[in-house]
């Protein structure tokens, strides 16, 4: 079974250059998690203080982007990069990053490491996300509409549980047994979101959870997750032999980082080259590689708009 080609840090960096890039921090990862939650609270407070359609749209976009940010930080935890103490790393990655949006760290870790092992190979579990591209512009717009209207959220989050009950009934599985399995799947999400509902209700904002948490999760979060996936691997050659071109790095300004690509997720080529570098060290990794002339060989894009144009370039 072929695996993706690898690079060795020693091929690009001296030991003195590599050591700080790969170093874990006891504070930086925890600060990013805290930052995500602070932005979520601040965006929600903006709408509470000035309730109008504009502030609602801003809050939904900022909160949805930080929900993606929590998923990105769970991704760092899956690589053991969020904290040098693995117990702290896994607890924070599971309960403060994954569970709020129904992510599950250990399940994701097994799945995601397979993606790194077989990147752009037939065995890559994420290959289906990039294989259809390029698509038509009309197809991309239809996908965006499904994301923003909650259809993708229903298909990915709600429908599998409903299907479990339907399939269980067809196979004669007792309802109680199926319900236990579905509950185990949703349990972390229910615990964390129950705490959020209780906390907001105690301060008289009982409506905050559906409006300022569930709504972003069902609309903006699926859309930018799709756009991020497109930017990372769409139109990348299957069975690509060059490890510097298994994934794409996309330049992102402050606005893109705020609403689309938080916590250095746009440095995806560097991440695939050196998957144990914490996300906050990816910009420094990029600068060092650029100084050595390596970025000229890497797969890059000038903006997310440019990537989407390429990914939707198929004739109608």
From TrEMBL:
The keyword Transmembrane applies. Residues 53-291 form the Fatty acid desaturase domain. CDD domains: Rhizobitoxine-FADS-like. The chain crosses the membrane at residues 30-50, 56-74, 185-209. It holds the Pfam family FA_desaturase. InterPro entries: FA_desaturase_dom. This is Fatty acid desaturase. It comes from Caulobacter ginsengisoli. Keywords: Membrane, Transmembrane, Transmembrane helix. Signal peptide: none annotated.
